[in-house]
């Protein structure tokens, strides 16, 4: 079990192709059929229809259309923000809130933190409140647990392990050894299912069971926590590590787990079964003190992050069938309190005696734990990373080791990129480039791209040192020039087939007034915001210096040209012109999302919060945000500062790859060109412009937004822009907030909300 804790309130490629190159097809978008379906589909409106609706009319417009529907629909692109909220209250059990409930009693489930969500899920599972739990999970956008039957099978494994407890490994029969091996494989399979389901709060109970059964398996001669350890993780435990663990365990409030429960059972000479509650039913996971007798049918019940005591339950007893339920203090001492309650047959002592008893028991347990027991506890923490509350020594050990492992992973990733770069350099020789150039012979403006100079530079570097970073960079730059020339050739040939129409206003109508960006505030009300943004887009289309045509790839988007500018643009949600072709350096998850052979969802590029890969959705709190001056910051600001998971994908509108503050390009597995004509304007936010920063990034900033943006823009023009210096000189924003503004300016950052379809992507 986990430790006790305080409860939180393609296509085949002919001949040679540029590395990673692939042709893409266009896809049209219809509207009337899907909007009609949304309006009349009733309870049968499916998530797939939600995806189509979002792509047709946009995420926010879809939200507005669906607000009056009687069901909660999670849109494929646009994040976990629910269409309808799920307010609840708790009487004896949780229930939906109604108009008679007082505001202070209502729990707004959409606003709960991850730890609060996990605690609520465990409560609802304990209540057997499956219908309400399912409704809340839908609101959170959590997909149903895949292969849950394999997780439920864990409770059967517990019974199988119990049959082997009275034997020693050297006395196992062939059948016993085969059974142990089978249990190992099934535990590993259950862990794989856990990984697939990622952050779904409903799986927390099964994670705890896996912890417990893994420990039991190790006692019987099977594989322990190390079977789940990544190769990069140092699992060695030194005498100093063990002493640090003992010192931590003597501290009041340090969380405890099964090793400590087993030692307490030995000291007290008592037996204590450990139950969890799954689907409203008590399920036996393990026991401590197997050599001793139980006390008055009392048992531990583990509630995910808290231990309490129940009387009169067996495996399969329905919740409510217990004869007594003894609550414990919701602190890091709850396991010690629970074991003392069992020892005294449920009789409570005074608070003074209880605290004295816990302190004494902590010392006995810490000094009495075997080295093997401590090693196993530390290794569990190392593998599963759940070190919060483990005490300063152990927490430092775990965080340090996992940071080292992450560093090793990053180095392995960089090595893989280097190997891929080297393979690309070996492939791209002079004949390869000449073949690519010959394909561009028809391009009238070919000489303006500077391909010849880039080719000469690259081939010289390739000859001198084919494995240098300078050679890799020269190859990327040459590849980009060839790619851009190919796009120009497509335009010359009319491949985009756009019917541009100059905007002509009705003679009787008034020309729209130029908006005042200084007072262009973001409304808090959703309907008002949608109206303002739609009006802004219409105003842009009314400009007399542009031509535009409806995108063939998205019924709500436009492809726009500006007089005197040799480029194509699209609209963002605020009517800003954004370069049609942007770039993104992809993560390993993005790469696998696009490849599509490891998941069942549509191929494309997903933001972390919508990724089909659970680990992409892991929660990550950005560092250095504790001193932020903006409270309840916008989701865009939240994303730029590095919080995860996120509903956004960052792309750059710059003509080159995004660079870090030191001017170096970010490491990347690959770079993709993204055709924004496939994306609804409502799902595009150009946050790097002066208006974009004021509207998206500083929308709730109480100071002078125009002044703050101006300061950031001036700082970024310097040779060495410094957010630290800005925070010192201009205290209206924190260092992290200034850095966010500098970052979006430097990278020309554009946010795409939701999934980018495969057809919009071209690998460079």
Automatic annotation (TrEMBL):
Residue ranges, compositional bias (Basic and acidic residues): 401-420, 508-525, 589-604, 630-639, 709-718
Region named Disordered: 1-31, 393-420, 503-525, 588-643, 709-732
UniProt protein name: Uncharacterized protein
Species, as recorded: Paenibacillus piri
